[in-house]
Write a structure and sequence with these properties.
Layout lengths: L1 H7 L3 H10 L3 H59 L5 H79 L2 H31 L3 H9 L4 H16 L1
Length: 233
């Protein structure tokens, strides 16, 4: 919780500068969320104990209320017995007074216990509100963390690409393409040279056979046209 308290105690304009100075904002955010969850667990445990105490006070108040009713009813029965002559009046009066005293005492205890119950119940409501707020804060920061991690991945990938692009300037790229072009031209020239060597290595018989076996009609037509031209000249 200390990390988030620190952020909340400074102005919004300063939050970004503080985050920039963090060595690892993702790890610090994860640590803050863990602390919030630990606090949530302790708060839930405390709320359970407080609710148990409130329930106990309520039960005790109901018990004292029942005692008060019982003592009052006993006082009534004693007075009725005295009126009927079933018991001595002096004994009846003494016991009836004692029953009424205990009736009053139980009523007062019941009232005090009820007030304690109501106060504890109000404290439970406040604590439940704090717990709900804490749960909401945890969910919010977890979503913020997911967004932060995604943005970090994108920014790192973009940085790597841009870094590679800056290392390959226009001059080096053009130079590399020119070298590749020269190599292709050299390979083509070399292939043509080998072809010429292959043709020049033929024997006379091979040349004659090649000419006799040449069935290229277009070549023959071209030769005939050439001869006609020469004759006319």
């Amino acid at each position: 919780m200390n990390i988030f308290k620190r952020l909340l105690t400074i102005g919004k304009a300063e939050i970004h500068s503080v985050i920039d100075n963090f060595e690892d904002p993702i790890n610090l955010t994860e640590q803050g969320i863990r602390e919030m969850k630990e606090q949530l667990s302790k708060s839930i445990e405390a709320l359970a104990q407080l609710k148990a105490l409130a329930i106990r006070k309520k039960n005790e108040a109901e018990t004292e209320e029942q005692f008060a009713k019982d003592y009052y009813n006993k006082a009534v029965v004693i007075v009725q017995k005295a009126e009927k002559g079933e018991v001595e009046t002096s004994d009846a009066d003494r016991l009836a007074k004692e029953a009424l005293k205990r009736h009053t005492s139980s009523q007062e205890k019941a009232s005090d216990l009820q007030k304690e119950h109501e106060k504890l119940y109000g404290d439970c409501d406040k604590m439940q509100g704090n717990i709900n707020h804490l749960k909401s804060s945890i969910a919010k920061w977890e979503n913020e963390l997911k967004t932060l991690m995604a943005r970090v991945q994108v920014s790192e990938a973009t940085k790597d690409i841009n870094q590679q692009m800056t290392q390959m300037d226009n001059g080096s790229t053009v130079s590399m393409l020119e070298k590749l072009k020269d190599r292709v031209i050299q390979q083509e020239a070399l292939a043509e040279a080998y072809s010429d060597l292959s043709r020049s290595g033929q024997t006379i018989d091979e040349e004659i056979d090649a000419m006799v076996n040449n069935k290229d009609s277009e070549a023959e037509a071209a030769l005939n046209r050439l001869k006609e031209t020469l004759k006319k000249g």
